[in-house]
Amino acid sequence: MRSRRWGFISENRAEFGVKRICRVLGASRAGYYRHLATDQARAERQAEEKRTVSEIRAIHTDVADRHKHDRIHFQEPTS
Predict the structure, then answer these.
(1) What band does 58 get if pLDDT is binned at 50, 70 and 90?
(2) Which residues, in sequence order, are CB contacts of 12 under 8 Å at separation 6+?
(3) CA-CA distance, 25 to 22, in Å (whole number)?
(4) Closest CA to 2 of 20, 21, 27, 23
(5) Any idea what the Cα angle at residue 41 is, between residues 36 and 45, rounded to 5°?
(6) Could you give the CA distance from residue 7 to residue 12 in angstroms, rounded to a whole number?
(7) Longest dimension (CA), the chain
(8) Hey, how many other C-beta atoms are within 10 angstroms of the C-beta on 3?
(9) What ranges in 1-79 are assigned the alpha helix state H?
(10) CA distance 15 to 8
(11) CA quadruple 62, 64, 69, 70: dihedral positive or negative?
């Protein structure tokens, strides 16, 4: 049960804030932050960060490739 609770807090903390979610769920903020410091939670965060970095790199490559072809070149009119 606690694991689901901590997961819920992690997934929704940006929108609602840790303090508010913990108050509603009756969880302690100290317990949540202690959970974040555990090895398993750290490994999960690192895996999520790795996925995020991969997605960002893929998007960056896609956008960079698209813009290479979209350049407009000035050509003087011929008389």
Answers:
(1) very high
(2) 21
(3) 5
(4) 27
(5) 100
(6) 9
(7) 80
(8) 10
(9) 2-16, 18-25, 29-36, 39-69
(10) 12
(11) positive
**Whether the predicted pLDDT of 22 surpasses 80:** yes
Amino acid at position 13, single letter: R
User: What residues contact 32, with CB distance under 8 A and at least 6 apart?
Assistant: 6, 9, 18, 22
- Report pTM: 0.51
- Please answer whether residues 22 and 35 qualify as being in contact, where contact means their C-beta atoms are separated by less than 8 angstroms: no
17 pLDDT band, cuts 50/70/90, is very high
Handedness of CA 19, 33, 30, 26 (dihedral sign): positive
> In which band, very low, low, confident or very high, does the pLDDT at 74 lie, cut at 50, 70 and 90?
low
pLDDT one-digit tens code per residue, 28-46: 999 999 988 887 888 888 9
What is the identity of the amino acid at 79? S
